[in-house]
Amino acid sequence: MDIFNLIFSFLYQFGDAFAFLVLSACGLAVIFGMMGVINLAHGEFIMCGAYVSTSAAHAGLPLPLAIIAGAVAAGIAGMIVELAVIRPLYQRPLDTIVATWGISMIVTQGTLIVLGPSMQGVGTPFGSFTLGGYSYSVYRVILMIAAVGTLVLLWLMFTRTRFGLLSRATIQVPHVAEAMGVNTNLIYSLTFGLGAGLAGLAGGLYAPTMTLVPTMGASFMVEAFVTVVVGGADIFLGTAPAAAILGIIKAALTGWQGQLAGQIGLLIAVIIVIRILPRGISGKILKERA
Amino acid sequence: MLRTSRGAASALGVLLLAGAAFGQDAEPIKLGVLEDQSGDFALATIGKVHAIQLAAEEINAAGGIDGRPLELVEYDTQSDNTRYQEFMRRALQRDKVDVVFAGFSSASREAYRPIVNQFDGLAFYNNQYEGGVCDANMIVTGAVPEQQFSTLLPYMIENYGPNVYTIAADYNFGQISAEWVRNIVAENGGTMVGEEFIPLGVSQFSQTIQNIQGAKPDFVVTLLVGTAQASYYEQAGAANLNLPMASSVNVGQGYEHKRFTPPSLKDMYATVNYVEEIDSPASKEFVEKFRAKFPDEPYINQEASNSYAAVYLYKQLVERAKSTELAEIRKVIAEGDVCVDGPGGQMCIDPKSQHVSHTIHLAHVTEDHSVEFPTKWEAIKPYWLGEAGCDLTVSDPSEQYTPSNPPPANG
């Protein structure tokens, strides 16, 4: 019985870390992993999703709809940013760092000035359950389900829909796609919007569990970049296994020696992975397959 | 050396508060304000800036300090330690301010303190902190561990039980405060069943919550700093951790009870020298004045009250010294009777440590997140530094000491 509890608690913690890594990283995997834009405003798209979904929930929308509203708002914001700032920079990845960093600072400080230093949260729904002396939050189990669901939906979108096909074609060989009659500008815009929308989804999902402040996006950034860098360019062959491996490392080290050890473990894992797999897990898999 | 000069008025953020009430010749007294108006700490510190503006406006309306107008030179330090160093140098060297009110985190204070020493300036640190700074160039108006923990922990042990778990922010404030908790818990017959340090910026606490449940404490001491770490309360509440909490830093500073949905802060006990809920005539008057000037202020916290009172402490020091020179001001401090009635109670400067005595209020957050005050302790002195051997009236080591690293015995 005790063994069962131990296994369950580890699985719960692993699932919790996995969900956080997947949800923080999905949007970045699209924008940074696929499109090659080093998006330092990723955290601000997350903050946008969190703020919009919380405002919508305060306005009376049911929480699931409010979260979707946050994701849509962040997606639209992403498309506007793509059109106004990112579009001329696709061949200049280093310049995207400066541009998106600037956006990040403007948005953080603008939010502080316009909306004040914090926003009242909505509270975590669904309560808790108890198992073998430990109590667990039900909502965090829902976050795990949402993480897996997001991965499945993304996989279906990229492999089974026309948008997915055109998007992959456009990003792999833009001029050929264009020659075949694809409106590549639109596809770039929609793909960037999808990435920003996924970030907004992460924000909306985590908003009930966190402090809502203009700088909240920053606490997702390390995990998001670490996961995408370890995973490499492909979301399914990269982000998902990277989040699984890092989730195990983080849950085990945090349970054993506390938060500091968990953070250190995460960063050491990245250093090792970059050293032996310079193109991430998916780069390795795809190379072997080819 | 800190005489005021004209001509530096072009400095960024200079706020001329002087009205027409002053004569042409009354040279302003310049007060530098280095506080975080953006970044992770802004939430707790914007109120400090507003409190200083309020006090300056009141003082100028009533004829200034010794007939001279008070002028604020404000810089936004952006929750960034290097900004503190840049702006401290700029304030003391170029703006030639007479006094600086600076700093939220202990890391930022330790970043700028050597610069204040170098220019032999005077800085007020208006924040509760881990204690131990023995420096003649500093006046600390915030409460320190012997004031907050020697009152809080015996109360908690008596009412909830002896087993204590500490979670603390992983930098000098959290580490040294946790050392104080260990010592005072042991002195009161309690047991530490666990301790975890959380890096700043961490926002996910699922595993920490489980570690706490595994250790089965009677209450949790939370020394969390910054807005990211404040997510702990929501997550602990959602996981139904349901343990009483004790803190020297939460509620009074980051007003977590206002920001989170009840009942996530249920049974949080914090020792504060001020929060806006305190039901006294002085407190009510302060809240009224504050809200009249800043109607949108989300919360008037302990640090806002300290900053406000500190301006009046400085006014009294300058008027009694008839000078803004540090040596003259310190002669007045040495007389040992520099006191003001702050919004939370009387505050007097202790000449040995240049820290301040406080009325410590025990704030208890109830299930609906209203605050009640089960008890308070009057005139609690910042005794530790003096007893440990720091005496600024004799020598100025400009050091920060801790219980495990006390001042050298021969003083």
From TrEMBL, chain A:
Q: Name one Pfam family in it.
A: BPD_transp_2
Q: Major place of localization?
A: membrane
* Statement: the UniProt record of this protein carries the keyword Cell membrane: yes
Q: Which GO terms describe its cellular component?
A: plasma membrane
Asked if the record carries the keyword Transmembrane helix, the reply is yes
Q: Which residues form a coiled coil?
A: none
Where do the TM regions start and end? 18-41, 61-86, 98-118, 138-158, 186-206, 235-254, 260-277
Provide the protein's localization: Cell membrane
List keywords of the entry alphabetically. Amino-acid transport, Cell membrane, Membrane, Transmembrane, Transmembrane helix, Transport
An example Gene Ontology biological process: amino acid transport
Listed GO molecular functions?
Answer: transmembrane transporter activity
Its family remark reads: Belongs to the binding-protein-dependent transport system permease family. LivHM subfamily.
The membrane-topology field of this record reads: Multi-pass membrane protein
- Please report the name of this protein according to its UniProt entry: Branched-chain amino acid ABC transporter permease
UniProtKB/TrEMBL annotation, chain B:
TM stretches of this protein: none
Q: Where is the Leucine-binding protein domain?
A: 28-368
One Pfam family of this chain: Peripla_BP_6
InterPro entries named among the record's database cross-references: Leu-bd (IPR028081), Peripla_BP_I (IPR028082), Urea_ABC_transptr_substrate-bd (IPR019968)
Q: Which UniProt keywords apply?
A: Signal
Using the record, list the residue span of the signal peptide; answer none if the entry has no such feature.
1-23
The highest taxon in the source lineage is: Bacteria
Name the family.
Belongs to the leucine-binding protein family.
PANTHER family according to UniProt: ALIPHATIC AMIDASE EXPRESSION-REGULATING PROTEIN, PTHR47628
> Which named protein is this?
Urea ABC transporter substrate-binding protein
